[in-house]
Structures are given as C-alpha cells and as structure tokens.
Amino acid sequence: MKLYILNGPNLNMLGIREPDIYGKQDYACLIRMIEEHCVGLGIEAVCYQSNHEGDLVDKIQEAYFKGADGIVINPAAYTHTSIALLDAVKAVGLPTVEVHISAVDTREDFRQISYIREVCTKTISGKGLGGYIEAIDYLYDKIRK
Ligand code: DQA
Asked: What average pLDDT does the segment 33-38 reach?
C-alpha cells in the first residue's frame, strides 16, 4: 500500500510556529512518527510539504500517476481558500483524509470554511500530530477491505 502524506503552507514551521496551538514538536519529528508507523504497517509513505498551492496540486496528481492508494492532506491555510486543491482531489478520485492539528471548528470564523472537505472521505481535527496517525490507520483499514 502506498499513501501520500501532504502538508501545506507553514507546516514546515511546526515547533516554532504558535506552539500553544500546534505543539512543540517539529516537522521532522512529525515525519519520523509517520514513517515509523507506516513501516510497521507495511505502508510506503510519500511525505511532502510545500508553501505553494500549485506544488500541492502537482503532488495530488502525482499520487494518482504513481499508483498511490490514498492521500492524507493537511492543506493548512489553503483549506479555507483553495478550489484548486478541491478540484485536484476530485480529479484523482483517491480516498483522501483531511487532517488539522488544531480544532479548526472552534477557531476563527474564516477557518470554518473547508473547500476540500466535500471530497474527503473523513476529516480529523484537533487531535494534534496524532491526527495523522489516525488518518493513516483509517485509510489502511478502508483500503484493505
Ligand atoms: C491547520 C489549521 C489551518 O486553519 C491553518 O491555516 C494551518 C494549520 C491545522 O493543522 O490546524 O496552517 O490546518
């Protein structure tokens, strides 16, 4: 099984960025945690972070062309603005889980909008870095069935 784990803008700043909201662990730590978990399940994890919307669109398309089974994506601020990411997930038709480290539903009004949500099979929000693990486990079970 192959999963693409995609992270949007400013998530490379984990650990530095608003640690009261996003925690003290950095991006490298997140990737280590994901890779260790995936190795245990026999999943090939392709991890990618970008601050640029088009790069994320390219990676979603790449997931399709390189035969991925599913996508875990934290689109970060592009959650609330990007129709391009919505269209990309719709185009590839891969099972996709939307992850947010913070509880977006309880934050500012502008964070209540998620364009990508309607094409995601599940949304996990407010569970910290553990949300990525939950998303991987969800896809693992769903795809194996
Ligand atoms: C985020 C929430 C978004 O509103 C924000 O723009 C982010 C991170 C989260 O993981 O909680 O950059 O997606």
From this structure: 98
